[in-house]
Design brief:
alpha/beta, 16 helices, five-stranded parallel beta sheet, Rossmann fold, 2 domains, two-stranded antiparallel ribbon, 44% helix, Helicase, Ruva Protein, domain 3
Length: 340
Amino acid sequence: MTETPHSENGPASAEVRAQVEQFRQTFDRLKAEIHKMIVGQDAVVDGVLTALFAGGHVLLEGVPGIGKTVLVKTLGDAMHLSKSRIQFTPDLMPADIVGTMVLDEAAAGGSAARAIRFQPGPIHANVVLADEINRATPKTQSALLEAMQERQVTVGTDTRKLPDPFVVLATQNPVEQEGTYPLPEAQLDRFLFKLLVGYPEEHEYDAILARTTGRDLPTISSVTESGEVDAMRQLVRDVPVPENAQTTAVRLVMATQPGSPYATDKVRQYVMMGSSPRGAQALILAGKVQALREGRFAVAADDIKRFALPALRHRVLLNFEGLGDGVRADDVLLDVLERI
């Protein structure tokens, strides 16, 4: 049975109920279309779509060959959005990503006419796959900072807006460390979520092999376009956040900070640096998307807690003792969730 949407001031209007229902249907259709190609990985697909409609970027961590690139391609096809792939390597330069000014020679009236024009880089797309982002040098990684935060790039003295919507889905291999450059904390903080992409379950292999080794690949239909995505993002921003939900988000973030009165013993022992306020922003935005998915026009505290791991795991920096004891950021966050 569909739950009647509510705002923090009571039942929502008929117009709001219609918008919430439209959001739910589009989200579910998009998810179903992606699952025509992607087998399993429900939490990853949910996380990517939640980040998309929250207006954020996603860092996907997992070993090669488990469908990260296919997920990005399928997402672009299902949303009728432009997509591009950047293969990060140690010799990649910032201009290879954002674009550069080139000399254009054209015949004009029998004489050579020369002009300087801008050649856009692959960052100028709606959905950008930054494949193995940690293989590029920090100088090149930083080329994404302005794009991810400001939705624009600066080349020389010119600033150029990026397409709207714009989302970066970056991947990295958690095992292979040779020839890699760990992402600086400032860039990690720009990702709304860090999602861990695991191995498929045994019962999922049959479907994976059937879809990828046969003659006919699944056909992905476009179920939405950029204008509707923008409208859904605006609806997310309009969802009210009651005081108890916002307090939950604030205290979760503060609990990851060693000097905070809400910090747990495990945080004080193992954490060198906790989440920034961007962590609270990520929790609130993700909670708004989840509320709409469940037919509500107000965020609940459980919506906030649901996204604590993907929103905060890359914002918690462990100290040497934590690294030496094999503690994971998820272990610290699960301890925080039990106490907040």
